[in-house]
Fold this sequence. Notes:
This protein is mainly alpha-helical and 401 residues long. It contains 16 helices and 2 strands. Helix content is 80%, strand content 3%. Helix 1 runs antiparallel to helix 7.
Amino acid sequence: MPLALLALAISAFGIGTTEFVMMGLLPNVADDLGTSVPTAGNLVSAYALGVVIGAPLLTALGSRIPRKRMLVLLMAVFTTGNLASALAPTFGLLIAGRLLAGLPHGAFFGVGAVVAASLVREGRQARAVATMFLGLTIANIVGVPAATLLGQHLGWRATFLVVAAIGLAAMASLARLVPPLPAGERTGLTRELRALGHRQVLLGLLTTTFGFAGIFAVYSYLASMMTRTTGFAETSVPLILALFGIGMTLGALAAGPLTDRALRPTLYGSLAALALTLTAFHFTAQVKWAALVTVVLIGAIGFLTTTPLQMLVMNKAHQAPTLAAASNQSAFNLANAGGAWAGGLALSSGWGWTAPPLVGAALAAAGLAVAVTAGLLDRRGPSRVVARNGEAVAAADKAPV
């Protein structure tokens, strides 16, 4: 694999750390800034809102910029947002810093996915994209627990200063390791939006929103489930989250080769397995060892879905693969917010702490239904993203999609 993929993975590591670490720092931030934990929870929403807004906006604005320069500029915005968060004197300015840090998230992964696909030969594009996302999963094993521990001992501001330093390291690695790449072919905003409005692309984004929401219906409340239902001590929560991150990494490693071999079967199988595993978690949460095994499986199967979902929308929106890949990141974050809301609704309705896994299973099943419907409607020949002059474009392929 090219060293440029390492630079993309380092960047993804920083993004993954800042995205998920806030969940563990909410009590610290609330105490320091004199607000409640539920109010501090808006910091999570602010980042997600930044992703949803920034993904299509920054991708469109940067369509004329060479891809290497665009990646460095996006990480510069990310670094600035985290530095602003670290120095924010008030809660309102911290909200603004989180929003700013989230703006480049979707655009970076959109541009990065196309760059990763252009760096390798045909038949290995999904592996390359999965390698980039590997940084995101490793962040949940190392970055998030370490950053949470740092924030608890040295203050939450120290966490964001460290993440800003990671952003600087990512910028340096991108500038050093990524080869010069031209900007994407300028097709015009209207044509790009028309490609994004393709029925298969919209169904792919809808699959992401429903399918991935199933994971966050559970992940958002995993710590409370494991302490209140399974009986683990609060000091065990970082280890449990690390186990989830290990599962994510295993899923990301398997996703690339499987997606390159058979995209749609991988997507169908992972969503079906996710629905079944989440259903099982409703029961295994009562037993410590079984709960831990299930946590790893949920992480692995859940992130097995990410690469086929990303490649699917890139393939189908071949006239605007970067915009499609970035918009898919918006869909992932809508799934994060929607899954957390649905799981919380079940809890507030008095269904108990093992209700979120059942909600997640229903959402994963809905995602599978959308994916299967899209497959049945797709009567055109299969396609893949292949590299040509630094640009990822669609090409016919005999392997099943």
